[in-house]
Each structure stands twice: as C-alpha cells, then as structure tokens.
Amino acid sequence: MQYDVAIIGGSYAGLSAALPLARARRSVVVIDHGQRRNRFASHSHGFLTQDGTLASEIAEIAREQISRYSTVQFETGQVLDVAKSNDLFHVCIDKIHAITAKRIIIATGVTDQLPEIQGLRERWGQSIFHCPYCHGYELNQGQIAVINSSEFSTHQAMMLPDWGQVTFLSNGKNLTDEERKQLASKNIPIIDDEIAEISEHATINLQSSASQQFDGIFVSSATRILQDWIKALGVEIESNGVGEWIKTDAMKQTSMDGVFASGDVIRFGGSVPLSVADGNLAGVSAHRSLIF
Fold it and tell me: How far apart are the C-alpha atoms of 18 and 24, rounded to whole Å?
C-alpha cells in the first residue's frame, strides 16, 4: 500500500508528527514495535498539563486520539529496511510485507547503553536516572550520587546541587586536576573506590566493602542508534563521546530529500516535551514538502 508519509516510531515524537498530517487529510502510516525509551519510568515530568502523568498513559491517549482520523493507519512491527527508488520510499516491515511512501519521518528514538555495574539496569528509571529535570524534584533535595560513566559526568554532577546533596563516585577512573577543581567549587565530595554493586533502593556498595545509601543516582548513559537501516539509508549522523544522533536542519529535514526526523534520535539529550515539539514540526515540514 502507498501512503503520503510513513512515520517510523510510534512514541511521543512519532505520534506528534502524525497529528498535523492527519489534520491535513494526508494518508499516514505509523509503524511501531512498542519499545518506548522511557518505558522503565513510571511517571513523566516536565510536560505542560501532563506533569506527573503515567508515561504510558500519555502515549496511549495520543494514539487513541490520532486513531480517530480516518487517514491514519497503524502497523505493529519492526522496520528492517528502507530504500528509495523513483522518488518513493519502500519500507520493509518484519520481513513479511512492505509499504511505500512519498515521505519518511524517522522517530525511532535511541537506545541507552548503561555502565556494566551489578544492580544498575534493574533500577534504571526507578531510582537511577539520567535527566534531573525529569526526576530530580522528587528526590526532595536528598542525597544524590553521580556515577562517573562518561566525559559528561562531571558536568552532570555540577548541575545537580540544585536538586540535593551530591556525591561524585569516580568508580575507580582517574579524574583530571581540572575536574576535581570543578567538583570542589560546588562542594561535591568524591569517592574514588570502584563500585561493586547497587542494592536496595539506591545503596552503592564499594569494592572496599564500604556502602552508602542515596535517595537517587544519576548516570550519563551512552545513546546509540541501533537500527542498521538508518545508517544504510545514508542520512548524516553526528556523534560525540556519549551519543549519536541524526543531523537535521531547523525544519527537521535530514541530509536526504524526503526524509525527516524527530525526537531523541535527532538530539543529544531529550525529553517528552522536546520530542512532542520536534514531532509536530517534522509533520508540518513533511506536509509542506508535499505541496511546494
């Protein structure tokens, strides 16, 4: 089947992109395999009118509202390949069938690659976080740990004193004199021992057998684009030491004509409100490209 626009990813950015296209009465398919990046967090914070709402509920309500538009279809599945031929994009879904579209919006999000510390993965999104604006307020200015996991960790630690009493855990990694000076300027103590495991709510147990309880822990995850078809498609991808993302212009157009992108897959750092804004603009831009 042929559509005006295929949106790959049905979370906040993808659903937001679908709305202006649906209201323009364009034929749209939203392809999603049900793996929201923030599925590990129970509640979403920082989104105007939805602060504190269940993260899953925001996506469910959005999908229900968009489903009311007759020109929007949903496909459940995983995109395995996208190829362009004769100004049309051919999208292969689960090796079962393919659809074609005049335009593509990539809204796949990214995957968080977490440090290999015992007990960390099980607490991700519950007592271990990456975004203070999303989860810092609920820690009630309590005891906060920052684990040294990337070149961004020192920066992250220096932000967090607005949300609580911060301790920096180097996890056995060497810090530069400048990094130690920066942390000292914010009165942030440093624990240099390696971490053995994380237990209970947010207790950090060290290799030295010492342990310390915290109200929350922050980690800078590495964000990666794991879909091979995105890189094979040929859109330009940017990266730094802690992430990679698709390069777009101000209107969410990628380096390839007819391909737009939105949400966490186009930025270092992300949130629900930013994804919704990105998606809306990508949808409008894709629509305009069909006209002009």
Answer: 10
